Amino acid sequence: MIGYVTLGTNDRERSAKFYDAVCGELGVGRMMEFDEFIAWGKPGGGAGIGLTKPFDGNEATVGNGVMVALEAKDRDQVKRLYDIALANGGTDEGEPGPRGEPDENGMLFYAAYFRDPDGNKLNAFLMDKVA
């Protein structure tokens, strides 16, 4: 079970604005905050997201192949999360839409991809019945 994921930032305030907006759409706010670290989530809830300047003092960099997936409740929320991300300094990595083919149960992976202001890759997704 994942408790939380921490991403690096080089501009805490800029990235905090991004995550305040994205996490707000998901129904959670800041649950912990220190000078160099902020965490969004709900105590006792699902996995949270942490944001920090690297503890070693070096510049934060993006992990190649690393992505954080945010589970949405429906296709409209996938679109809202994508729009919120782009409106708050994020960049497009793939508009909302189906990915792949339905599985044997008629479930389809539906997602949108974006990067935060520091370049960390995220997506908003859900497994949805084919309409």
From TrEMBL:
PROSITE patterns: VOC (PS51819). CDD domains: VOC_like (cd07262). Pfam families: Glyoxalase. InterPro entries: Glyas_Bleomycin-R_OHBP_Dase, Glyas_Fos-R_dOase_dom, VOC_core. Residues 1-127 form the VOC domain. This is VOC family protein.
